[in-house]
Design goal:
alpha+beta, 8-stranded antiparallel β-sheet, two-stranded antiparallel ribbon, 11 helices, globular
Length: 380
């Protein structure tokens, strides 16, 4: 893969091409090591272990050096990991989260709206020197950013030229962003068309807290939800628990970013944190962020009959009539996916320490496995 194609594929983020019912064929790899689990009854624990184990096997067969899967099912929670070689990840193993972090930024926006500090139809305004691109009479709004309907490209036009292919955001500064915005052209008029944009969510983060996005996400979302290990700052205790990212079987560095943090480009998390986060999505009434979470899941933009956008979240209607709320993510060495169904009270998160791509019209392995496991749990 040439350098520019590789950079483009790594930074593309989530897509809308889904085959939710598909699962990879089971291979010969076996989930190694022990599993970790939390559940209220031995029977429920055994049932979830039996259901999750084949999906761990398939993730290893698909090329993941290691994988961890977390499940919320009714009142039960379960976490299990597997590895080809080396340490078996558990609920506290640290992975880079990727674009699932966009839902954190969307939650911060929803908190501001619920508190009356912002409106979703508020036009995007940035500090002087940071021009907001325009096309047509309508300006980009905060809702446009949060639903990928702003017309902005996936990335600013000046990001890739000097990028390290293994750490593409690390070099980019706010001065670069100001320059890039002056060169940015909208592909469509705001509010008219879905086009997934890391730049859009990066700008949403900057609107919420210019040059202070990391601290804002901590204050607004991760601290109230007690997501201690969901952060852009890798503490020493987290570093000792972190999985090593891989690309094509080789270790690669973690992504670093100071500008597009709102897009999830450099956020870390764990399966335990994501289970807690997904439980809050399933039961907002139990959460201190109830109103904001409900707002993020409310449909705001329709892509087609099978896909709508909330704030950050993708809302899919599946061929069998079920509904699924989801987001996936990737960095240069990690692939993740989280999906849930409020109707069934079920959620699944899967985290792998390898970069993965969709191929031949099929979703990435981590996405296919997450969707298939959620479907299996929904049906039983």
């Amino acid at each position: 893969m040439n350098r520019r194609k590789f950079l483009g594929s790594m930074t593309a983020g989530a897509g809308v091409s889904l085959i939710p019912g598909s699962a990879l064929a089971a291979g010969n790899a076996t989930a190694a090591g022990n599993t970790t689990a939390t559940s209220n009854t031995r029977t429920a624990r055994g049932d979830l272990a039996a259901r999750v184990r084949p999906y761990l096997d398939r993730a290893l067969t698909a090329g993941s050096p290691s994988v961890v899967c977390g499940v919320v099912r009714g009142t039960h929670r379960y976490t299990a990991g597997a590895a080809q070689d080396g340490p078996v990840p558990g609920g506290r193993t640290v992975f880079q989260l990727g674009s699932i972090g966009k839902t954190l930024t969307a939650t911060a926006l929803a908190r501001a709206v619920s508190a009356g500090r912002a409106r979703l139809d508020t036009p995007l305004v940035l500090p002087p020197g940071f021009p907001v691109p325009r096309k047509g009479p309508r300006r980009i709004t905060l809702a446009d950013l949060a639903t990928h309907s702003s017309g902005l490209p996936s990335l600013p036009p000046n990001l890739l030229a000097e990028a390290d292919p293994y750490n593409p955001y690390a070099h980019y500064t706010l001065d670069d962003l100001a320059t890039g915005l002056a060169e940015t052209m909208l592909s469509t008029e705001p509010g008219s068309t879905y086009h997934y944009s890391n730049l859009g969510f990066g700008l949403l983060g900057q609107w919420l807290a210019f040059d202070d996005v990391d601290a804002m996400l901590r204050r607004a979302v991760t601290a109230p939800l007690r997501l201690r290990d969901t952060t852009t700052t890798l503490r020493p205790d987290m570093a000792s628990r972190k999985a090593v990212g891989h690309l094509a079987g080789e270790p690669v560095p973690d992504w670093r970013d100071q500008v597009h943090t709102g897009a999830g480009s450099s956020i870390y998390s764990t399966a335990d944190d994501m289970i807690h986060y997904l439980d809050a999505q399933l039961h907002p009434e139990r959460s201190p962020l109830r109103d904001a979470i409900e707002l993020t899941q409310r449909p705001r933009f329709t892509v087609d009959p099978s896909l709508r956008l909330g704030l950050g979240w993708h809302l899919s209607t599946l061929p069998d009539g079920r509904s699924m709320t989801w987001h996936n993510g990737s960095t240069g060495g990690f692939s993740t996916c989280a999906a849930f169904s409020r109707k069934s009270g079920t959620a699944v998160v899967m985290m792998t320490n390898t970069f993965g791509e969709a191929t031949d019209g099929e979703p990435r392995p981590v996405d296919a496995l997450t969707f298939a496991l959620l479907a299996e749990l929904d049906e039983s």
